[in-house]
Design brief:
single chain, alpha/beta, 2 domains, globular, binds S-adenosylmethionine
Length: about 260
C-alpha cells in the first residue's frame, strides 16, 4: 500500500497541474509528519534533539552529539605543553556531549579537575555512566552551575559554536543570520570568557565565526598556528555573511588581559 502511494507520488511529482501539485505537497507533508512522530517515540537521540530545539532554542548551538575519543590530538597536545604538567588546574569541556572529550582530556591532563557540561540531558546521563575518576564532574549546562565550579584555567569549546554546517554547505547558503546569528555566538564567547582565569586558554574549534570578531577579542592572543584548517564547512563574518576563500581561523587563545 505505502509502496503504491510512493510510486504515484513519484509519477506525479513533476506535474504542472496546480491541484496535483498541491495534493502531492500535502501528501509529502503528512508523510514526513507521520515519519517524525514515529521517530520521536522510537529514537531517543532524535527526541532529545527535537526537545532541545523546542525548549532551549535560545541557548542551544550545535544540536548533534557527534563526538569520539581523541578527536583533536594536535590541539590537546599543544594545550598540554602550555601547562607543562601542572596538576592544580581546572578544565571545562563545554559541550562535552557523551563524555569522550572529557575522558580524552583526562589522558592529556592527569590528576587535574575536569568539568564536562552539556545542554543535552540525555548526553549528560550517558556521561554519568562512564568510568570517570572523582576529579571529573558532569553537569547539565547552565551558566550559574558552571560558574560554581570555576574559574577555569582552560576551556575547550569544540564543535559547539555552529549550526547545521553540512546543510549550509550543501545548499550554498550565503547568510546564516536566521539560522545562527553572530550575536548568539558572541554572547556565548563572552560567557566563556567570564569563566576563564587570566593567562588561561580558550579553545574554540570547529566554528562558523571567529573569536577575533567578538567584543572580547582584545583580551586574547592566538597561541601558535593551531587552527581549524581541517574545518570543511563555510565560515561567516560578524554580519553573518559568507567569507569567500577564508584563511584558516586560529583555535587556541591565551587570555592575556582581564
Ligand atoms: C558536535 S557535539 C561536540 C562534542 C565534542 N565537544 C566534540 O567536539 O567531539 C556538540 C555538543 O554541543 C552541545 N551544546 C550545544 N549547545 C550547548 C550549550 N548552550 N551548552 C552546552 N552544550 C551545548 C550539544 O548538546 C552537543 O552535545
Amino acid at each position: 500500500m505505502i509502496g503504491a502511494v510512493k510510486q504515484v507520488v513519484k509519477e506525479y511529482r513533476s506535474s504542472n497541474n496546480p491541484i496535483i501539485k498541491f495534493s502531492i505537497a500535502s501528501l509529502s507533508l503528512c508523510w514526513n509528519s507521520v515519519k517524525n512522530i514515529k521517530r520521536f517515540f522510537v529514537d531517543n537521540e532524535f527526541r532529545s534533539i527535537l526537545l532541545l530545539q523546542i525548549f532551549q532554542s535560545k541557548n542551544v548551538h550545535q544540536t548533534t552529539p557527534l563526538t569520539y575519543m581523541d578527536r583533536y590530538p594536535i590541539i590537546f597536545s599543544a594545550c598540554k605543553d602550555y601547562f607543562g604538567g601542572k596538576k592544580d588546574i581546572k578544565i571545562l569541556s563545554f559541550g562535552c556531549s557523551t563524555g569522550e572529550e572529557v575522558l580524552t582530556l583526562r589522558s592529556y591532563f592527569p590528576d587535574t579537575y575536569i568539568v564536562g557540561a552539556d545542554i543535552n540531558k540525555r548526553s549528560i546521563a550517558k556521561c554519568r555512566k562512564l568510568p570517570a575518576d572523582n576529579k571529573i564532574t558532569f553537569i547539565h549546562s547552565s551558566y550559574s552551575d558552571i560558574q560554581k565550579h570555576g574559574p577555569f584555567d582552560a576551556v575547550f569549546c569544540m564543535a559547539v559554536l555552529q549550526r547545521k554546517p553540512h546543510y549550509i554547505a550543501a545548499k550554498g547558503i550565503s547568510s546564516i543570520k536566521k539560522i545562527y546569528p553572530f550575536e548568539k555566538f558572541e554572547k556565548q564567547v563572552i560567557e566563556l570568557d567570564g569563566l576563564l582565569k587570566e593567562q588561561g586558554i580558550l579553545t574554540v574549534h570547529f566554528t562558523q565565526y571567529s573569536l577575533m570578531d567578538t567584543s572580547v577579542a582584545y583580551k586574547y592572543e592566538a597561541m601558535g598556528n593551531y587552527n581549524q584548517g581541517d574545518y570543511r564547512s563555510p565560515v561567516f563574518d560578524k554580519n553573518s555573511q559568507l567569507v569567500n576563500n577564508p584563511l584558516p581561523q586560529k583555535s587556541i587563545f591565551i587570555k592575556s588581559k582581564r
